Amino acid sequence: MPMGNSSKSDRKEERFLTAFEVVQIILFFASFSIELIGLCYLIFKDGNKKK
């Protein structure tokens, strides 16, 4: 049985994201969504030409 507060299993650490990390995540998903929509547009635009 470990003594003291040095063991990580004894205490629960709640880590919240910083504002910078939240902005990074939002920008990452926004750019990913834009790229995905652009890719789908190119695929379906080319698909309609061939018919």
UniProtKB/TrEMBL annotation:
Q: Which residues cross the membrane?
A: 22-44
Report what the protein is called: Holin-like toxin
Task: Give the UniProt keywords, A-Z.
Answer: Membrane, Transmembrane, Transmembrane helix
Source organism of the structure: Streptococcus danieliae
* Top-rank taxon, per record: Bacteria
